[in-house]
Specification:
Blueprint: E1 5-9, H1 15-22, H2 27-35, E2 39-44, E3 47-57, E4 61-69, H3 78-92, E5 97-103, H4 107-115, E6 119-124, E7 134-140
Parallel strand pairs: 4-5
Antiparallel strand pairs: 1-2, 2-3, 3-4, 5-7, 6-7
Helix pairs in contact: 1-2
Length: 141
């Protein structure tokens, strides 16, 4: 990948780092995601710099459920490299697009989605806590 960023499928040996940095799932939930090759790890200079975790909608469509980039590695192309990896895997599996979302009151994550090539494709009202809606994004592979 560009700029010395390497993205790969996360393995069992990455589990402790993933648990520490995912922000939502613990080991019991991450372990099967890792086993199913649904978590990817970005490395910069051989050290972990970010993760992306996907869920499969309709058992086939990749939905980006979590993106995390370490603060010191932000704005260096790590998130973009991870999304290139996700799109390439989806394309290799014959899937034409990837989905993602962000809470409607989160302007920065929405801007990131647009910056890495996602296009807004829908909205669900009152989906999150405090009745905040969710903006959905799509990116072709």
């Amino acid at each position: 990948m560009s700029g010395g960023i390497h993205v790969r499928v996360a393995g069992e040996g990455d589990l402790a780092w993933l648990v520490e940095h995912d922000g939502h799932l613990g080991e019991a939930d991450l372990r099967p995601k890792v086993a199913a090759s649904e978590v990817f790890l970005a490395e910069v200079g051989g050290r972990p710099a970010g993760l992306v975790r996907i869920d499969l909608l309709w058992s086939r469509i990749p939905f980006v459920a979590q993106v995390r980039v370490l603060e010191g590695d932000r704005r260096r192309g790590v998130g973009r490299a991870m999304m290139e990896f996700v799109r390439a895997r989806a394309r290799a599996q014959g899937v034409g697009f990837v989905l993602s979302s962000s809470a409607a009151d989160e302007a920065e994550p929405q801007a990131w989605h647009r910056a890495v090539g996602f296009e807004e494709c829908g909205f669900v009202a009152r989906l999150n806590h405090d009745a905040v809606g969710e903006v959905f994004f799509r990116q072709d592979t």
